Structure formats: C-alpha cells, structure tokens
C-alpha cells in the first residue's frame, strides 16, 4: 500500500538541522540585556490604481477595515510608519484616523518603498529586473536592519509598531527575519491590507505570529 511505502521511506528522514541559527543576527546580542519584546505589525497597502499609484475606493475600504481590526486588537501601539509611496501613505493615514491619538504617525521612510529585493528562485519568465536587485536589494536590506532588531537595553516594556509598506518588502522581511533563503520571498502571497506580525524576543529569537492575515476583510474586499 502507498501509505506503507511512504511510512517506510520517512523512517530514513534525518532529524539533524538543515541550517544553523545565527543568534547575533542583529549584531546586538552582547549589548541588549533588555527583557522587552518587540512586535512588528506589517501591513500591506490597499488596492491601488496603477495609473496614479493611489488607493482605489475599494483600497480605502480595505485600509479602514484593517484600521478597525488594529483598533479591536487593543494593543499599546507606539507608532505608524509607512513607505513614501502614495498607496502606503494613504493606507497609513486611514489607519491613523481610526486609532487613538496617542499613536504617532511618523514621517515616511524612503527605504520602505516597493522594489525587487532579491533574485527569485524559481525564476519567473515574465519578470526580469536584474538591475533592480542591485539597487532595491540594498535599500530593502537597509530597511530590514533599521527596523528589525531586539529591544535596546533602555526599553522596559514590550512595544508594538506598525509598518505600512508593500508585498515584496514584507515578504523579504519575513524570509530574512526567519533566516530562510531570501530567494523564497516570491513564493509567498499577501492580499491587500493584510496583516503580518513578527515577534522579536530579547534573546534574538524570532516568531512569525501571522502572515498575510486577511480574516478581517469580507469576501468582496479580498484582492491580491
């Protein structure tokens, strides 16, 4: 029987790690005795018009739905920061308008703009931006290093930070944070206005709490 053959073949599976974990991935292991945990809430922008880069009416609905979801979570949010591209800025603005006034809307960050972070494997024949990788990849990696790190020693309480940006950027962030092959970013899919949550522990451990969560969106607002 097939299941018997599968079981027998699985008995030879190696249980040794296929990769090692870099505990000092953010170069802060020796200088971070903080006991605080950082939570990064990564929000993809809403649906947008390709002609002008701004949110469509449906995109605005998606953004406000995500804003309401974030408010329902009732987390002690610190700030919202977004890419400088219009669709991300508008999504961040919608979120800010729904959340409490104590959640600061920070200036936009050019590093968070959409781009091609890393050569994809398997390659897509319809998309070949080799020159973009050299420029976008370095920029998006700089964004990762700017936002992804364990809490500093002076931080005493857990923090919750919202980053509104783009699918390619978020997918790269997830692969990079989990120390997965960066070329796998294009194998992931994120819906518009979806929510991904990454937890960074004081000892450098990372956990992905949510990836592309769109459960707060009704079926008529689900777009990719």
TrEMBL record:
Residues 1-21 form the signal peptide. Keywords: Hydrolase, Membrane, Mitochondrion, Mitochondrion outer membrane, Signal. It catalyses: O-phospho-L-threonyl-[protein] + H2O = L-threonyl-[protein] + phosphate; O-phospho-L-seryl-[protein] + H2O = L-seryl-[protein] + phosphate. One of its GO terms (biological process) is positive regulation of mitochondrial fission. GO terms for cellular component: mitochondrial outer membrane. Pfam families: His_Phos_1 (PF00300). It is an enzyme of class 3 (hydrolase). It is found in: Mitochondrion outer membrane. Its EC number is 3.1.3.16. It comes from the Eukaryota. CDD domains: HP_PGM_like. GO terms for molecular function: protein serine/threonine phosphatase activity. Displays phosphatase activity for serine/threonine residues, and dephosphorylates and activates Pk92B kinase. Has apparently no phosphoglycerate mutase activity. Interacts with Pk92B/ASK1. Belongs to the phosphoglycerate mutase family. BPG-dependent PGAM subfamily. This is Serine/threonine-protein phosphatase PGAM5, mitochondrial.
């Amino acid at each position: 029987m097939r299941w018997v053959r599968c079981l027998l073949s699985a008995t030879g599976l190696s249980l040794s790690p296929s990769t090692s974990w870099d505990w000092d991935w953010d170069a802060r292991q020796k200088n971070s005795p903080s006991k605080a945990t950082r939570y990064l809430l990564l929000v993809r922008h809403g649906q947008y018009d390709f002609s002008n880069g701004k949110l469509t009416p449906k995109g605005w609905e998606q953004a406000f739905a995500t804003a309401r979801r974030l408010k329902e979570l009732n987390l002690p949010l610190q700030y919202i920061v977004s890419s400088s591209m219009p669709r991300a800025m508008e999504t961040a603005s919608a979120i800010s308008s729904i959340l409490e006034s104590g959640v600061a809307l920070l200036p936009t960050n050019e590093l968070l703009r959409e781009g091609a972070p890393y050569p994809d494997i398997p390659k897509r024949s319809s998309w070949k931006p080799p020159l973009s990788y050299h420029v976008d990849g370095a920029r998006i990696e700089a964004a990762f290093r700017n936002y992804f790190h364990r809490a500093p020693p002076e931080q005493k309480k857990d923090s919750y930070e919202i980053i509104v940006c783009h699918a390619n950027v978020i997918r790269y962030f997830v692969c990079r944070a989990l120390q997965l092959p960066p070329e796998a970013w294009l194998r992931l899919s994120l819906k518009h206005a979806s929510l991904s949550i990454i937890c960074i522990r004081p000892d450098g451990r990372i956990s992905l709490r949510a990836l592309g969560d769109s459960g707060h969106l009704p079926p008529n607002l689900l777009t990719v």
